[in-house]
TrEMBL record:
Any one GO molecular-function label of the UniProt entry: protein-disulfide reductase activity
Matching InterPro entries: DCC1-like, DCC_oxidoreductase
Protein name as it appears in the record: Thiol-disulfide oxidoreductase DCC family protein
Superkingdom to which the source organism belongs: Bacteria
Pfam families linked: DCC1-like
Organism the protein comes from: Rhizobium tropici
Length: 139
């Protein structure tokens, strides 16, 4: 998908690591609980996700964060995670209370988890693929 096609999709795009067990579990959780279809998803391993990472100054071969891209607005690190859950509505929106914790405390925990995600949660042998029902939500 070209960069121009990215902008044709309305709503935030979550860019995640489809090789990471934790990341794909989170992507599947979003697809199950995002009842209004607010979010679209793309993996950093495909052309669209890699282009979005590069646009944000992140090497897609060595990512340090998941992203939410909504037009020109980009969220990353713990802000991105909290925004995802806030966007899912209740009861997931309750995690928004964690925004009261300063980013300077939240982000180091996020970065530690991101750096160690394969060691702690595992790495898939192949990229996760959506079901046919989920395919319309994946870029």
């Amino acid at each position: 998908m070209s960069k121009s096609n990215i902008s044709e999709h309305q709503g935030p795009i979550i860019v995640f690591d489809a090789m990471c067990v934790l990341c794909t579990a989170n992507a599947q959780f979003v697809l199950r609980h995002d009842r209004i279809g607010r979010f679209r998803l793309t993996s950093m391993q495909n052309e669209t996700g890699a282009a979005l990472y590069r646009r944000c100054g992140i090497d897609p071969a060595n990512p340090d964060s998941l992203l939410i891209v909504d037009g020109a607005k980009v969220l990353r690190d713990s802000d991105a995670v909290l925004s995802i859950y806030a966007g899912l509505g209740w009861p997931w929106k309750a995690t928004s209370v964690l925004r009261l914790v300063p980013r300077m405390l939240r982000d180091p925990i996020y970065h530690w988890l991101a750096r160690n995600r394969y060691r702690i949660f595992g790495k898939r042998k192949t990229c996760w693929l959506p079901t046919p029902e989920q395919a319309s939500r994946i870029l």
